[in-house]
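Exercise 7b. Backbone tokens:
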């Protein structure tokens, strides 16, 4: 049970971090397009 809980928490953290990176990357692309 402990391993499954740790694994689910780990996957949740990875998904959240991944989503944050994609979100920031999109914001940076928008800023670059606006500067042109």
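Sequence design result:
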């Amino acid at each position: 049970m402990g391993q499954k809980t740790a694994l689910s928490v780990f996957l949740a953290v990875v998904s959240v971090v991944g989503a944050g990176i994609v979100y920031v990357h999109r914001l940076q692309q928008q800023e670059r397009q606006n500067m042109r």
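Instructor comment: The first helix runs from residue 2 to 35. The chain has one domain: 1-36.
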